[in-house]
Amino acid sequence: MQVLGVEVVHALSPQAKGKVERPYRWMQDRIVRTCALESISSLDEVRSVLKEEVDRYNNHQVHSTTGEIPSIRFARARQEANSLFRPFALPKPYTSPKDVFCLREKRLVNAYRRISLFGREIQVRKVLPHEEVELHLIPNQDSRILDIRIWCKNQILQSTTLPLEGVRVHF
Fold it and tell me: Using CA atoms, how far apart are residues 84 and 150, in angstroms rounded to an integer?
């Protein structure tokens, strides 16, 4: 999110925090009660109840504080440019959304212009030995591969792939 210039804004008062948490607590209570009344116990049925409740809350229910339906209020705010939502724009120097929404690692290129990643060595072209490179890691579960985009000094140097087997990410 830092790449996109998005910052965390914390609630500065208990009242502001409550304003955010109250609708979620109300929604949770309503879903639990609905499931109990209708004897719903499977996750698929609960998901459909959740979907219906979110739709009702956003598109049909008049909000107690604003006196408006949330989706209509939000649409009007966007139309009047009175919203913090902005269209997605790819920040420079990135060329793909994959470079923004990815896992990141930094590595030093060794004297042989190689880096080590998950026990595998990768040859890195167009970079001097002992320079730092940034790896953008994009796992693809369907293909069972890891796309690796190697960046240095705000330029993409190369792309490569590795099989996902043996790849472990620790947070």
Answer: 33
* 24 membership: H or E segment, kind and range: helix 14-37
Domain that holds residue 110: 97-163
Q: How many domains does the chain have?
A: 2
What's the whole-model pTM score? 0.68
Select from 131, 134, 129, 135 the least CA-distant residue to 162.
135
Assess whether 68 and 102 both reside in one domain: no
Q: Are residues 70 and 111 in the same domain?
A: no
Q: Do 71 and 129 share a domain, yes or no?
A: no
CA torsion 52-58-59-60 (nearest 10°) is 80
The number of angstroms, rounded, from the C-alpha of 123 to the middle of its chain's C-alpha atoms is 30
For residue 117, the tally of other CB atoms under 10 A from its CB is 18
Q: What is the pLDDT of residues 14-53, one digit of tens each?
A: 777 776 777 788 888 999 999 999 999 899 999 999 999 9
Considering the domain boundaries, does residue 107 fall inside one? yes
